[in-house]
Amino acid sequence: MRLYAPSAVESVLDGLLDDPDFGPAVVAHKVIPARPPRTEPFPSWLDPGLAAGLRVRGYDGLYTHQLDAIEALRSGQDVVIVTPTASGKSLCYNLPVLQAVVEDPSARALYLFPTKALSQDQVAELRDLATAAEVELAASVYDGDTPAPVRSSIRAAGQIVVTNPDMLHTAILPHHTKWFQLFEQLRFIVVDEAHGYRGVFGSHVANVLRRLLRLCAHYGSSPRIVTCSATIANPQQLAETLTGRPARLVDRNGAPSGEKHLLVVNPPLVDARLGVRAGTFSLVRRAALRFLRAERQTIVFARSRTSVELLLTGLREALREGRGPVSRVRGYRGGYLPTERRAIEAGLRRGEILGVVSTNALELGIDIGRLDAAILCGYPGSIAGTWQQIGRAGRRREVSVAILVATSGAVDQFIAAHPEYLFDSTPEEARLDPENLHVLLAHLRAATFELPFAETDRFGAEVADTLLSFLAEEGHVRRADDRRWYWASENFPAAEISLRTAAPENVVIIDTGGNRPRVVGEVDLFSAPTLVHEGAIYLHESRQFHVDRLEWDERKAYVHPVDVDYYTQAELAVTLKPLETFASSLAPAVERAHGEVMVSTLATIFKKLRLETHENLGWGPIRLPEIELHTTAYWIGLEGPAWREWPREELDVALVGSGRALQTVASVLLMSDPRDLGLVAQVRSPHAERPLIYLYDGVPGGVGLAERLYERHEELVAGARDLVADCPCEQGCPACTGPRLETGGQAKGRCLKLLGQLVTGRSSATVAAALAG
Amino acid sequence: MTAELAAPQLSVSTVTTTGSLLESHLDRLRRLRPAVDTSGPVARHRQARAQQLADSLGGWVERGEAGAVVVLETRLTLPLAAERLASLPYHFDPSCPLVCLDTETTGLGTGTGTLAFLAGLGWWEGDTYRLRQMILPDHADEPAFLSAVESAIPPDAWLVTYNGRGFDWPLLVARFRLHARPEPMTAGHLDLLPIARQLWRHRLGDARLRTVEAGVAGVRRRHDLPGALIPARYFAYLRTGRGDLLSEVARHNRQDVLSLALLLARLSERFAAGGDRAGAHPGDLAALGRAFVRRRRYEEALECYEGALESAARRPWEAASSVWRPFRSEAGGTPLVDRLCSDRARVLARMGRRAEAAASWTALAEDGGSLAALSWIELAKHREHVERDLPGALEAARRAARMAERARLTGRPRLEVERDLRSRLPRLRGRLGRSSVPGVRLTGWAPAGPGAAELIEPFSHRPGIGQARQPPSLDCQTGDHRGQVQGAPRRPGSAAGPANPGGNHGGQERITRADQVTDAAGGHGRHAAHPEAALQPPHVQRTTLAGGEHQLLARARQ
């Protein structure tokens, strides 16, 4: 039998659906019909050279959304662009910027991308277009890797400066007098991948943009802002909150797409009584192999780094047996070295790489071209994320396929049972709160450092005078004799703010097996205890390495290559310890408090699991220090004897389920991202000796989320109860009680009971309206 | 449809902190943070504040539309022969008005939140040095402050600063830009910091102005306010309005501006053409010479080197205080006089005075000092390329090799020399012709450290093994080598003969031929082959010395 022969996507899909091991497992099959391109001719005002350059690059006209965007920008409006991956989004801003440069070479533009890789991609694309249009263009990336001599030339003459919010925050804004040419002539600000700017990070970025716009006003420029976002529920609101200005929504996608098949697959029940299902991995592998053997470019998304490596190993094994394109299947995830990643991206674009197994690292707008098939190993956790991953498959003319293979986890099973949830629901909202007082004050300090404030000056929507008086009490800010506020301290306030919560530190992984030590990869500090502890099998591009030594203080892991038939999995214990209570109140039967806590994460043991079968072969201890997060938390529980009537196992489900509902409502109330709040439910809190639900601030030191939950306690609890009660699900679902549904399917009832006991007041009108749906 | 996902958009206003809510948040934050003492007399009225500052510092207030500035002025008699400075190897035009500038700031960062609150400027009016300090009485007066600074810098002025290129001036420029004003025009900028590093750092602990002014101009500061405390003083003044808090800051700045003038005067007196170079530290003059070399002004460089050598001879204790480390890879350093002689020889060579350069190298080489090996290499170059004396060049290279070998045996390898010889020796041998270069064998450089002698010794018996064991880099191992290692000097023939038995690639024969060749080349060889020859220069070479060369060295060494 020939296993390896190029064939069309349609025939691969037919074969897959006829496969007796796969076809019956398909629980939903939706076909999105092909869309023809909707194009318009180039507008008459477009520079003929640019139009010619576009024709050279293969554009005969503009897609409707591109024309909408550039016309809106031409008329002086800000725009927010929401279209799927690879729909020619960057032309929406590159074209007006190039047009401005052609009209006036002194014009400048500032591009903000969340990551370095994206910046490099964009500059390359921009230069190609400029070359085709024969436009002299100085476009450069300005980030931490830019060498000092290049920096000064970018400051003086870079027409397009591509950077990230962090660099803008610490290197550009506080030194704006060195950048005066940029600020004086700034015509466009591009904020791409804006859906990433949510939660606390988004609140920071919004304040950085406030500072940027304030400086532009000082230098007399009034740039247009172009915001681009992946599909989310509230793109326009996101853009307007981020930038503080009205923006015109552009979402009339005119890019063509071929017919697209969406499949939801649920592994069949092996033992109906115990609810045991066949492996997700084997179904993913089965599907992926069919596409790969047919020479169809395929991306497989896995939820964890270990899964990426395990799937990759499995695929390569199978391809080797069938003499398939083994070397053309690669892994991709955080932890691969940047050069390795760039090579994989380029290989995908050129078609040299046929298949890639990736984490959500490839969800972002990194340019890898368009692929034939996307296979999702498990529900990515959000609707927006699912659509982004699915969006990786989709040729302009040919048929493409996206397959979601559910795991046996509760959320996945919910999706499998209700596939319409995926197809019909609005994707999640991106929320941020630029008025978060901690964040706002920190940036107000930085803004005062950059430029004094007059009495009536605004920062964001509000007049900053009250807040500045508050800062003056600390002595860093001073009201001078002209009634204006000046920075009056030796400190450099921008350095005191980190926009992102993730620790920038990493652990490098060094292979000592060869002639000389060689760095094979890296892992962020937080994941290091579970991925590269001593005795771990570290997988990299499906090669196995045994971790001999982890030098924690030096942030180095020493490994040597091995060939074994098992992998390791570490277990993590999260404990929360209250340190100090700032405020507490005991309403009848309900206690609530907020205060300082220590959240410790400790890797405890690791298991050795056989490849393929995942059977447990043994275990070992992990001896590493705890990772501690010192932050603030809000906690809630029943007071006094009310607990006694709860049986232990019911309580467990109720606490976790209610906690999830509280977390969901909290992120709506605080305009934050669910990731910003951590959840710990303790059936018997070692300190309070009673069951408690904690919601803690994910940022070290906290940004005041806990305190505001404490204040809005009543709305929060009532909102959570309403959320669960009004949810159309029968036994709890990912949208209300979260993933812990295994225990008997009674989550909804138990949560409602607990939340009912916790509610002391009436649900406020705001929350009721917000959650009524 | 689930509720959460269909949630309508919450408007921002529902969470906007309204007045009273904001106040209560701020109150809570107040309770959480440590109390800061911001007490003290409330800032006085703007005009009173400036006047009070002027009174307590002994200055006056200059008022303009844009605010007030406090001005202090001092006049000193400090003659400067500025025209002489033109002769220095620096980009500088002393026919322009010279304006010394030093600022005091609210921090060391160059972000826009850092402010220059005191600018000290100094310029000459005849023999009078006029030192004017401008102080910012309040943030709000900055436009007036900047105008005052601008008016004190004429557009054709040449600025003189200490690290002003990297700090003071960019910071002032940033202030002007912040106020949307063009920065003041100047004709140029002479930063004394790099000059101080070049000329004086070699004998001082560091190149901070305090160190340099003490070491070069003899300035002693008493009760000087450390620079790190200055920002805090200014903030305290702003809070309290007490002008006396700034008196030490003003004194510190006055001394800084004065020191700039003193350093300029010192440059003019001691280092410029027509100045009293004889009185300068020999190491300083050597450094000045090198600065001239960088500008390709060889005549002047030569003058400096010769002046330095004379000065070193007159004042040997000063010469001894300067030690250069020419190569990072080599331990120890080079005594100043040796370094001077070699620098001088290099300049002579660049000027085309090759014979004199060679004489200088010869003197250094035979002197056996720390630069002897390098000097042999230079001589090898000279003999090869100028004199076209290949055997002589090879001999010189061999002398260098022997010295390098000795250095390695004593545990202080001369890596630069070894690296050079690794290509030079084979090339020279190649040019001489394969058969005519005996006595030189390929082996590796013997490893240094204990046991080195044992490792080397077998090579003389069994060169084949030696070659196999060591990478085939280059060595020059003449027959007398064993003798050196074992500390028993022997005649070359007697050492090499028994050590190289007949069957050993004709070693015996080679030695003989080496002697013949070197004899033919002028008789260096036989002397050179003698272990003591490296230490005692042969008379033939002595005769080639330029007159006085040895005397110079000898005098300088006394």
Question: What can you see in these coordinates?
Answer:
The complex is a heterodimer of chains A (773) and B (558). Chain A has 773 residues and is of the alpha/beta class. Chain A has 4 domains: 187 residues, P-loop containing nucleotide triphosphate hydrolases (Rossmann fold), CATH 3.40.50; 212 residues, P-loop containing nucleotide triphosphate hydrolases (Rossmann fold, 3-Layer(aba) Sandwich); 57 residues, no CATH class; 201 residues, no CATH class. Chain A is built from 24 helices and 33 strands. In chain A, strands 1-11-18-17-14-16-15 form a 7-stranded mixed beta sheet, sandwiched between helices. A 7-stranded parallel beta sheet of chain A has the order 6-7-5-8-9-4-10, with helices on both faces. In chain A, helix 2 crosses helix 5, helix 9 runs parallel beside helix 17 and helix 22 runs parallel beside helix 24. The N and C termini of chain A lie far apart (55 Å). Chain B is α+β, with helices and mostly antiparallel strands and 558 residues long. Among the domains of chain B are: 226 residues, Nucleotidyltransferase, domain 5; 117 residues, no CATH class. Helices cover 51% and strands 10% of the residues of chain B. Chain B has a 7-stranded mixed beta sheet. Chain B has a two-stranded antiparallel ribbon with strand order 8-9. In chain B, helix 4 links the parallel strand 6 and strand 7. The termini of chain B are far apart. The N terminus of chain B is likely disordered.
